[in-house]
Amino acid sequence: MRILVTRRWPEAVEKALAYKFDVTFNSDDKPLSKNDLAAAMGEFDVLCPTVSDIIDAGVIASGERVRLIANYGVGFDHIDIAAAKAKGIAVSNTPGVLTDATADLALTLMLMATRRAGEGERELRAGRWTGWGPTHMVGSALKDKVLGCVGFGRIGQATAARAHHGFGMKVGYYARREMPQAIEVDGTFYPDLEQLLAVSDVVSLHIPGGPETANLIDAAALAAMKRGSYLINTARGGVLDHEALAEALRSGQLAGAGLDVYPAEPQVPECLLGLENVVLLPHLGSANAETREAMGMRALANVEAFAAGKSLPDPVA
Description:
By secondary structure, this protein is α/β, with parallel strands linked by helices. It has helices spanning 11-20, 34-40, 57-60, 81-86, 99-114, 117-125, 154-167, 193-199, 219-224, 242-251, 270-273, 289-307, and strands spanning 2-5, 22-25, 46-48, 68-70, 90-92, 146-150, 170-174, 188-189, 202-205, 229-233, 254-259, 278-280.
């Protein structure tokens, strides 16, 4: 069974894959082109992509050999699931193992935005800091403020727990249904998104990408937010209208924002680059050594199950 790993994975995972299978690695770690991915569909039995690989219907239709797409990551909006399913190609992902890392980063962005940490570091490095002052770069406290989680799955719940137990924040959440787990953070369920946005001091996005959530947070949603509030996105870039966000940041409707994901990575929306009140990180949500290795091992478990003719541990399609 031939396997293509489209990007470099942690060394321990690559060794485990190579020990058990005939694996081709991307030694220079440059994102593969659509032509490369299309060619792989006819040359390999298993394709192991990441979020940087667009596996659309055209790519999927390009070859007849691939029978499993074992995605390295929990999000799979870069894969045309319907096209894969129609062609009988199984798709798996790596849920659960990156929950803590992504929740940690959501809190990192929350603190950086509310305490103006990115702005402060830029001022200092540029030699513009003139010393401490009572009104210099004053931000916002988190204690007793309302965190509004848009989506309340594993990562949303982990973020809420950190914010509630660690920083004394109140928690509200918008989800498809009321979640019994919310009792652990004394969370309030809002069945209407605008109601949650209107009462939240910090809004954190934890929803999957895809057509159903595209630009869910648009100009109208941003206008519904409390004036002077903050927006955090560690979910997917496509769930947010970035032009509308830039305008909300310029106008003061939002005091700040923290983003880790963008619609067309590695491009960052130009409208945000000149704004001081937005923290921009390069998709670091799962970027700690322990998590990245665990993701790879989870992907390997799906490949092993497929090779043995067993049910996938983490099927998407």
